[in-house]
Design brief:
about 200 residues; 10 helices; alpha/beta; six-stranded parallel sheet; about 55% helix
Length: about 200
């Protein structure tokens, strides 16, 4: 019997996942939690074989929770679910030591099969997403451009970015202009979106 921890913040979706997985003869949900902060404590207490987690958990996102699980409860394998999967999320999921990454829209039998694969130490990822992740472009941005873009992604204005990185405001604006040119973005928000979806941020 594969013992499962479910982490999903939407009550209706969480209940649906639990009901669907408990209907499988070889799967049993031993715990379900609503936020990322509860994942590691539940795993340490109950010792699940697989944690099925939403990428977009509140308080502590699924990717960070996956990293913490790998450190604190490495026996528990991770399968991440996303409502809006993209190649960047796939890359970040595997960098966070997850073995599985699926759209939350998959059929129940596909999810169950993915959990079985992950429990046995194999990877479970939608083939189209895997190909997109492998073929997505390499990061064209320099380390300094990435520093500027990360701060822009956090909502910092050019003046704040300049102060944090010990640069002039003009230099920050030049970096942002180059970022937008290299990514083909319309503005800095668009550049953040493109970089996030590509897995560079």
């Amino acid at each position: 019997m594969i013992r499962i921890l479910v982490a999903e913040h939407l009550p209706l979706v969480r209940r649906g996942l639990v009901a669907s997985l408990d209907a499988e003869k070889d799967l049993t949900v031993i715990a379900d939690v609503a936020c990322g902060e509860y994942v590691v404590p539940a795993a340490l207490e109950l010792d699940p074989d697989v944690a099925v987690m939403d990428v977009d958990l509140p308080d502590l996102d699924g990717l960070t929770a996956a990293c913490r699980l790998h450190e604190k409860a490495p026996r528990c394998r991770v399968l991440l679910l996303s409502a809006q999967p993209n190649p960047g999320q796939v890359r970040r999921a595997f960098a966070a030591h997850a073995l599985g990454f699926l759209s939350i829209d998959v059929a129940p039998e596909q999810l169950a099969d993915g959990i079985r694969r992950v429990a046995s130490g194999r990877k479970a990822v939608d083939s189209d997403l895997a190909i997109a992740a492998l073929t997505s472009a390499d990061n064209p941005l320099t380390p300094r451009e990435m520093d500027v873009l990360r701060l822009a992604a956090q909502g910092s204005a050019s003046k704040e970015i300049a102060a944090k990185l010990y640069l002039s405001v003009g230099t920050v604006r030049n970096h942002l202009s180059r970022v937008m040119y290299k990514t083909g973005a319309r503005n800095r928000l668009d550049a953040v979106r493109i970089a996030s979806e590509a897995g560079w941020l």
